[in-house]
């Protein structure tokens, strides 16, 4: 078997040691006589898996004790609706800073529940930048301010934690969590779908300041109440146990590899290799994002002639490079270089890009 370098934006590549460990334990977890996916989530084996995953995630990301951690079915889009139900009073304003497709998607999920206000947006320039903090029109009575820390499609990333004063900052970290150290205390809440850096699709993580959980929020079913999930240790209903187990293996792998400091180093190296290949191509390739906010996780780029796209993709697949087709919103190409992507993968792509340019330029 020959595994390709997988640049898919999500579901994304998983670390090979994690996949190998999961394969070994698929038929029987420990001495339980069954697979972890077959065991009760109330049993001692899975309870230990769940608790270890939380402890390791707290260590990896640096989550203090005064923040709760929830592991919930679904992904980030589900949380976008739930944060409004849990933390905004009926009719209360909520401020959103929109810097790409997923920030715009978040608006759709909360529009029925809050007085939605766009504090700032870079849509006018095609989401190629992040509006300066001084330009944001924040509401003093907002329930929270929401940002998307990294835009997976448009390739725009916040490089600093914006100051929102007394109003808590909420952030979608789906595509950049655990890729570098972050100050969790600078946020009221962060959330992430697992399928970029933390594990497989189907489970999400919410990290929230416990003080915010005292808010009444809006009338909602118990299954939509973060407090109920916390009280039940994220097992209010049957959780996606296999996904949670895989998340735990992935987090442990990241710790064993050196933690977020090491992955920050690798992320910088991979991003540098690819942006250098694009910027050094003399216009054969281009990336339109403001260099100051270019993503370290998702590198969108375009060939100078879109007629070459299919040939580029076909050649890439032959070279063992997959998942490079750009999102339908933008077209072109996109290389996602999450934590499971080794530096050698980025180097292989850059080498292929140079070779393709020499042959077709």
Characterization of this structure:
- The protein has 361 residues and is α/β, with parallel strands linked by helices.
- The protein has 9 helices and 14 strands.
- The protein has helices at residues 16-25, 44-61, 76-87, 101-110, 226-231, 241-257, 259-279, 309-318, 343-360, and strands spanning 5-6, 67-73, 93-98, 115-121, 145-148, 150-151, 156-157, 169-172, 189-193, 203-209, 285-286, 298-303, 321-322, 333-336.
- Helix 4 (101-110) links the parallel strand 3 (93-98) and strand 4 (115-121).
- It is globular, with a radius of gyration of 21 Å.
- The mean pLDDT is 97.
In short:
The chain is an alpha/beta fold.
Secondary structure blueprint with pairings:
Layout: E1 5-6, H1 16-25, H2 44-61, E2 67-73, H3 76-87, E3 93-98, H4 101-110, E4 115-121, E5 145-148, E6 150-151, E7 156-157, E8 169-172, E9 189-193, E10 203-209, H5 226-231, H6 241-257, H7 259-279, E11 285-286, E12 298-303, H8 309-318, E13 321-322, E14 333-336, H9 343-360
Parallel strand pairs: 1-13, 3-4, 3-5, 5-8, 8-9
Antiparallel strand pairs: 2-10, 6-7, 9-10, 11-12, 12-14
Helix pairs in contact: 1-6, 2-6, 3-4, 6-7, 7-9
């Amino acid at each position: 078997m020959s595994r390709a370098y997988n640049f898919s934006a999500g579901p994304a590549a998983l670390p090979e040691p994690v996949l190998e460990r999961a394969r070994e334990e698929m038929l029987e977890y420990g001495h339980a006589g069954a697979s972890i996916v077959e065991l009760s989530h109330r049993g001692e084996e899975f309870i230990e898996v769940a608790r270890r995953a939380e402890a390791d995630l707290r260590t990896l990301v640096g989550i203090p004790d005064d923040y709760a951690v929830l592991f919930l079915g679904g992904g980030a889009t589900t949380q976008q609706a739930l944060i409004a139900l849990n933390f905004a009073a009926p009719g209360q304003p909520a401020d959103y800073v929109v810097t790409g497709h997923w920030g715009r998607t978040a608006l759709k999920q909360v529009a029925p529940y809050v007085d939605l206000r766009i504090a700032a947006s870079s849509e006018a320039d095609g989401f190629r930048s992040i509006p300066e903090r001084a330009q944001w029109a924040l509401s003093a009575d907002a329930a929270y301010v929401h940002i998307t820390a990294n835009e997976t499609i448009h390739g725009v990333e916040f490089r600093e934690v914006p100051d929102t004063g007394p109003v808590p900052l909420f952030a979608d970290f789906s595509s950049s969590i655990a890729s570098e150290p972050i100050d969790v205390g600078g946020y009221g809440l962060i959330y992430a779908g697992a399928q970029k850096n933390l594990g497989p699709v189907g489970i999400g993580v919410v990290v929230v300041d416990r003080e915010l959980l005292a808010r009444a929020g809006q009338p909602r079913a118990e299954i939509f109440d973060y407090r109920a999930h916390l009280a039940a240790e994220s097992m209010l209903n049957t959780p996606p146990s296999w996904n949670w187990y895989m998340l735990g293996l992935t987090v442990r792998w990241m710790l064993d590899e050196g933690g977020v400091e090491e992955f920050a180093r690798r992320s910088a190296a991979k991003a540098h290799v690819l942006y250098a290949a694009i910027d050094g191509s003399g216009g054969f390739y281009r990336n339109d994002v403001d260099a100051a906010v270019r993503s370290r996780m998702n590198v969108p780029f375009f060939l100078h002639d879109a007629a070459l796209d299919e040939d580029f993709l076909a050649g890439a697949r032959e070279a063992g490079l997959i998942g490079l087709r750009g999102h339908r919103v933008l077209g072109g190409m996109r290389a996602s270089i999450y934590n499971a992507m080794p530096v050698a993968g980025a180097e292989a792509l850059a080498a292929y890009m140079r070779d393709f340019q020499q042959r077709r330029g």
